[in-house]
Amino acid sequence: MSTYSTYTLGDATPMTTIVMTGGTSGFGLLTAHRFLETPSTRLLLGARGPAPAGAETIPLDLARLSSVRSFAEGVADRLGTGLIDAVVLNAGVSPPDVDGRTPDGFETAFAVNHLAHYLLLRLLAPRLAPEAVIVLTTSGTHDPAGGTMIPPPRHANAELLAHPERDPGQETRPRAAAGQAYSSSKLCNILTARALALQPEVTAKNVTVLAYDPGPTPGTGLLRNAPPMAGLAWRASGPLLRRLVRRFNSKEAVGGNLAAIALGTVRPAAGQYYAAVRRDELTWTRPSELARDDRARDALWQDSAVLLGLEADRS
């Protein structure tokens, strides 16, 4: 990764500046620690609560679009004339149903996992440094071929995902509907990464845009809304689950690989944009067929802009 002299330490050492969401718990916290342990690295972290020591915390509630806009303004104020070397959008939620709505009126998983991060990318794009890296955390649940326990997406229609009550094919079983809302939002992350990589201000700066699939990683809080026993087992029994199910990943491997990608110590080959951790090893593969659909990619980009009242086409 290139470094820039726009923000320096006292001895004029170039500083690598990273903006991150989802860095206060789970494997994201380990990623944040890796950043903070890396010399000459500055971490601007969006958070609602306690953050790791050394991070510059800026308040952020991804369920409120006004908070996303305030966070972007806060980043700009902290940067001054500086630029961003990496953006890591790792935060995510998995609600227990699709009945919840954010203050802006959108289904919660879609709003937090996709729409808020889409808006944040649009707002931060002008502050990206040349050869910056952007990473959006997705999930293997987006791919029907993955055979996960969570129902895969049926589509990436932004209007219907934002307002599932308008979807004539919506799942009627609450937990299945919630799972599908989550996997659909993670499909949106990949489509957004692909669309962002085509935007002129991104291509002009040779920015690398990647989707990161951590794979099944017990010991995180993602399933906090699952049935009590399942959620507790997932959060507290990571090492045991990994011994019982060999395909599960460790938080350390997942957090470390995410940090390596963002810091540029691991780089994709030409044409690769989907990184997936499998048995603690970083692999480069292809996402689902729907995630590779160019019409779905372009429609999501345009329709998300409409939902937010932004200019739809930036090309």
UniProtKB/TrEMBL annotation:
Pfam family, one: adh_short
Top-level taxon: Bacteria
Signal peptide segment: none
Gene Ontology MF, one: oxidoreductase activity
InterPro entries (UniProt xref): NAD(P)-bd_dom_sf (IPR036291), SDR_fam (IPR002347)
Keywords from the UniProt entry: Oxidoreductase
Protein family: Belongs to the short-chain dehydrogenases/reductases (SDR) family.
Protein name: Protochlorophyllide oxidoreductase
